Amino acid sequence: MRYAFGAMLLLLGGQSAAAQSVVRGIIVSASAPVAGANVFIVETLAGALTDSSGRFSFTTSHTGSATIVVQARGFAEQRRVIQVPSAEQVTIILRAGTQTLAPTTVSASRYAASDERGATLTTLDVVSTPGTNADVARAIQTLPGVQQVDEGTALYVRGGDYTETHVLLDDAVLHTAFTFESPNGTFIGTVDPFLLDGIFFSSGGFGARYGNALSGIAALNTMGRAARPSVTAGAGLAALSVSGAIPIGACSGLRVAANEFDTDLLFKVNGSTQEFRTPPRGFDRSASYVLNYRPTGELKIFGIRQSTGLASIVDDPSYSGAYTMDLSSGLIVANWRDVFGRWSPKVRVSDTRMDRTQDYGAFRMGTGQAYRAASAQLDWSASPTLTLRAGSDFERTWSELDGSIPNDGFDKAPGARVTVVGSRFQGDRVSAFGESDFVAGSRTRIVAGIRSDRSTLTGSTTVDPRVSAAITLARDVVVTGAWGIYHQVPDPLFFDATLGVPGLPSMRATHAIAGIQAGTAGRMARLELFEKRYNRLAQATRDFDIAADGIGSSRGADLFLSGTAIPGMRWRLSLSAISARRTDPSTGQLTNAPFDVTRSLTAVITHAFTPAWHAGITQRYATGRPYTPVLSARFDAARNVYVPEFADPMSDRLPSFRRTDLSFTHLRQIASSNVVIYAAVSNLMDRENIHAYRWSTDYSERIPIRSLFKRSYYVGASFTRQ
After folding, report:
1. Which residues contact 668 (CB under 8 A, 6 or more apart)?
2. pLDDT tens across 294-340, in order?
3. Backbone angles phi, psi at 444, to 5 degrees
4. CA-CA to 240 of 20 to 30 Å: which in 189, 274, 318, 488?
5. Neighbouring C-alpha atoms within 13 Å toward the C-beta of 374
6. Where are the beta strands (DSSP E) in 338-417?
7. Each residue of 544-573: pLDDT tens digit?
8. CA 354, CA 331: separation in Å to the nearest integer?
9. How far apart are CA 215 and CA 203, in angstroms?
C-alpha cells in the first residue's frame, strides 16, 4: 500500500499526467495520406497508429527534445527531432522504400513498439490496475511470463529466482528494488511509479546490451525535464506525499519528491495476519535535474534516498519472538546522450549504497554494500537497414558482513550454535558488447550480438552470443524467435570465505523462445513457447550454507490477450503454463524448483463509466508452489531442540492462490487544480491464501501461514495545482 494513494494522480492529471502533452500530426506520402502508420517517440515509446486520413494524436509526459519515429509498410522509416510540448502539428512525408520492422510489444492499454522483445508499461498502467497498489513490480506481475509465487512483489520470471531478474533505474542496477517484510519472504516494492516516464519489461531473449542477468530485465526510466511549474500533494491510509516541478530557464528543469509511509493506520483499519511491534514504515526523498542543452542532447542527474524499518513477531519451532529489520539505501545516477548525424553516443555513471540489519533469535546480521558503475554505448546508423551498436560496462562492488548465523536452520534460538562472520571484500566486473540490427527485405528483422564479461570474484571470462528475429507473415501477424546464452555473477555475499565458496563460477542459462503475435494496439493475441536450461547455479541451503554447481531447466508457454468491449472498457488476460526443475541445494537432488508455479492466470478489466468515474477489477489464480514437508522429529536433549527429518525435497504443494481486487476513482477539476478521490478493495472475497507452513515446537502439527493481505480497504485523495 506504500504508493496506493498516488494512483489517483495520473488518472486526472497528477504529478505525471499534469505534465502530459498532446503530440498530433499527419503522415502523408507523395500522393496520399498514409493510414496505419506506426508513430511513436523513441524516448518513451508513447505512440499511436494513423487513421484513414493519415492523422495521429497521442499524449506523453516526456518534455524537451524527443525523437519521433514513423514506420509504415512499403515506406522507409522516418525520424524527426521535435520539442514537447508544442502547439505545432507534425507533418511528415514518407518515401517509398524498405520498411524497418520493429517487433510489436505487449502493452496493457496502448500500442507500443520497441527495439527489444518484451512488454512495455506506462505509469498509467501501474496505477490503474486493481490490486497493484500503485506498485511497479505488482503491475509487471500482471504481464505474461511472471509467476505468482506469493502476494509479494518479487519478480519470478519463467522459472527463475527473483534474484535473476535485474531492475534498472535509468540504466543503473537498482539493488534494493524489493524489501523483506518478514523472514517468510514477503516483499514491498521500493520504486515510486510517479518518478517514472516509462517501464520496459523483458521476460527473456533480451539483447547483448543487457548483462549479468539470467532471467529478465525491468528497465525503469525517470521523468524528463519539467516544462511547467506544478505541485502535488496526496494522502491515504498508509502514506503522505508531496512533489514539485520547477523549470529553470528555457532548457533545464528540476523535480523533487518526498514520500512517507506508515502502515500502522492501515492495519488498524483492516487488521493483519502478521503481528507487528513496529509496522512497516519509512520514507524516500528524490530529486532530478535535466538539461536539454541542444535539441538532441540531454544530461540527466537523478538521486534517491530511501529508508525502511519494521519489527514483527515470528513463530518458529525453535524461536518465537521479535524480528527486526532496518534498511537504508541511496542511488545517484547521471546519464548523457546526444545525436551527431548517424552517431548516437550514451554515457552513464552511478553510485549505489545499501545498509541492512536483521535480527531474530541467533540470527544477527549487518550487511553493507556499495556499487560504483559506468557504461558507454555508441550506435551507428550505417544505412537505412543496418544499425551497429557497441558498448562497455564497469562495476566495482564493496561488501561487508558483520554478525552471526545459526549453524543449523532448525535451531535459531538465542544461544544456539552460530558462525560468527566479519569480513570485507571487493570485486570488479568489466564487459564489452557488440550488436547489429539488420532489416532483410521488407518483412524480416534480425538482431544479433555478443557480449563478454570478466569478473574478479569468479576469476573467469564469459562469452554470450545472442540472436533474435521477427518475420511479418501478414498484416499485423508477426513470428518472433530468440536464442542466447546468459551469465550472472552470484551474490557477492556468496563468496564470503566463512559462509560461502570463494571463486564460485558465473551462473549460466540458455534461452530458446518462439512466438507469434496477431493484432496491434489494444487488440492483440500473443503466444510464446520457451525453454531455459541452467548450470553452475549457486544457492543457499536451509542451513544458510552455499551450494555450488546446481543445474535446472524450465519450459512452458505464455499467452496474452487484450481487447475492448463496450465503449470505455478495456480487458487483458495473461495465462502461463510452466514446468521448472532445479537442484535442491540441501540434498543435491534434482526436483521441482521452489517457484515452480505450474499454472497462473491474471485477468484485468477497467471501465470509464463517465469522464469522472472509473472502476476496475482484477482476478488472479495460480497453482500452489512446492515446499519440503517434515516427516518427523527427534528431541536433542543436549541442545533442547527438536531436529526435523525432512521428506523428499519439494514433494508437496501449497494450496492454489486466488484473489479478486476492485478499484474506484472519482475525478474532479476545480479551476486550475485537479482533485482525485480514490478507493480500493484488495482480496474482495477475503480468501485465506497460504504463503507457507510453520511447525509446532515438536513438528507434530503443521500450521498454515496466511498471506499478509486479508480483505483490505484503502481510501485516499490527491490535489495538484499548476
Report:
1. 12, 612, 674, 675, 676, 677
2. 877 889 999 999 999 999 888 889 998 999 999 999 999 999 988 88
3. -125, 135
4. 274
5. 2
6. 343-360, 363-383, 386-406
7. 899 999 999 999 999 989 888 788 888 889
8. 9
9. 7
